[in-house]
TrEMBL record:
Domain of life the protein comes from: Eukaryota
Residue ranges of coiled coil: none
Xref: SMART domains: PKS_ER
Single GO MF descriptor: oxidoreductase activity
PANTHER family: ZINC-TYPE ALCOHOL DEHYDROGENASE-LIKE PROTEIN C16A3.02C (PTHR44013)
Protein name in UniProt: Enoyl reductase (ER) domain-containing protein
Domain Enoyl reductase (ER) span(s) in chain numbering: 16-330
Length: 332
């Protein structure tokens, strides 16, 4: 591939939204010792992508400009570094790209072999790409933060998932049901049937008074809230939590960190837990597990929309808009 060019989409400074994305021709990257080169078939977007562009992770990310955004990719291995033992040219894979590198909005990307997982033919590239940041986050929130056992062997818990129609929320609802939890969910009226079909026991329209109050129709008190929405204060959660209930906040701002600190120092049994996904060597095992659940028909990736790379701006704007149902996919 050395010397050949590929189409890619990048931005060169903070801010600017979809209008700041630029289409460029760049050399196809060469895999280093422990990397695979993937011809991309699908890339899933996450709010994280445009939050980086907005400067939310400044000065850590992006490491440098111009930056090719997006991390969740699936495709076919077309070249491997000399140290790669687990993959060969022609393998279908799904991979989580490094935060520092990005690279998902392109025709080709290099991924670390430890963050790459084989993709069986039953799982489409789009279904697999959707699983990465969103699926890993839902899995981490439910298992590590909320303490659920996804094989159903743990104790029965009452779980609330806010913004259950979003990328993370739809996986969280389904995974919580695998853990035998009672699941209450919030979403907009148009997605109530979908969220019920994917397993939620009760669903609240967040625009109604009961929905805004997060009140379980059956009177359940929540052992854990997988909080995928934003802008809901602790005072709304507090009366709905069980004695040891936790709010796992996926988008913690300064107020959430203050609440977290106050609950800690006052030894409150009800806690706020800020969550930040930090992929590590365990992540590959979880990605494999999630891919296998999709293969077995136990987990569904809901696709909001698919957009060609040539029109990545539409996908980007849709993600910023915040009203996707499931995952937004870009296809080269
Ligand atoms: N900490 C981490 O490591 C981590 C990892 C992944 C994601 N996150 C964060 O988690 C959040 C969710 O991510 P995502 O990918 O799931 O987002 P998303 O797919 O963009 O979520 C969109 C969905 O949220 C629904 N929604 C918005 N506000 C709502 C509310 N107040 N109540 C109920 N539903 C609401 C929308 O429904 P309507 O269209 O009906 O309004 C839409 O279906 C984001 O802030 C993201 O940055 C954090």
């Amino acid at each position: 591939m050395a010397g050949k060019l590929m189409h890619a989409v990048q931005y060169s400074k903070y801010g600017g939204g979809a209008a700041a994305l630029k289409h460029v021709e760049l050399p196809i990257p060469t895999p280093k010792n422990d990397e695979v080169l993937i011809k991309l078939e699908a890339t899933a977007l996450n709010p994280f992508d445009w939050k980086i562009q907005n400067g939310k992770t400044r000065p850590i990310l992006p490491k440098k400009f111009p930056f090719i955004p997006a991390f969740d990719v699936a495709g076919e291995v077309v070249d491997i570094g000399p140290g790669v033992k687990n993959f060969k040219v022609g393998d279908k894979v799904v991979a989580l790209l490094r935060n520092a590198d990005g690279g998902g909005l392109a025709e080709y990307a290099v991924a670390k072999d430890v963050m790459t997982v084989a993709r069986p033919p039953e799982v489409s590239a789009a279904e697999a790409a959707g699983l990465l940041i969103a699926g890993l986050t839902a899995h981490m929130a439910l298992t590590q933060s909320a303490g659920l056992e996804l094989d159903g062997s743990g104790k029965q818990a009452n779980i609330l998932v806010t913004a259950a129609s979003g990328g993370v929320g739809l996986y969280a609802v389904q995974l919580a049901k695998l853990a035998n939890a009672h699941v209450t969910a919030t979403c907009g009226a148009r997605n109530i049937e979908l969220v019920k079909r994917l397993g939620a026991d009760e669903v609240l329209d967040y625009k109604t008074p009961d929905g805004a109050a997060l009140k379980s129709p059956s009177g359940k008190k929540y052992d854990a809230v997988i909080h995928c929405a934003t802008g809901i204060p602790w005072s709304t959660f507090e009366p709905n939590l069980s004695a040891n209930g936790k709010v796992i906040d996926l988008s913690p701002g300064p107020r959430a960190f203050l609440t977290y600190a106050i609950k800690k120092v006052t030894l409150s049994k009800k806690q706020l837990v800020p969550l930040l996904l930090s992929p590590n060597s365990e992540s590959r095992i979880v990605i494999s597990y999630l891919v296998n659940l999709v293969k077995e028909g136990k987990l569904t990736t809901v696709i909001d929309s698919k957009h060609p790379l040539s029109n990545a701006e539409d996908a980007w704007a849709k993600s910023i808009d915040g009203h996707a149902t499931g995952k937004i996919i870009v296809e080269p």
